[in-house]
Amino acid sequence: MKSFVAAVWHMTGVICAPLYWLLSFLFIWGGFILIGDGKGIGQAALWLVLILFVARFAPPARRLSGRWKNVLGCAAFGVFALMASWFQVV
Prior knowledge:
Layout: H1 2-33, H2 41-55, H3 66-86
């Protein structure tokens, strides 16, 4: 069981490494596309990317490995997308 959990954690880290940067690019692109929308979702998406990028270099985050930062960043993008779709702002 321990090796299975280790394998799943490794797979998650490998998938989230490029996915974090891809989602960052897509959220920046989508933020600029939606910046003129009256709902403010474009500005929120740009702020999310900026906050996550700055949080990667914050002193508490320096203790985390890159894998943790990528996985937590992907989770934050997912939560933001779910909240945006739940409140139907997109």
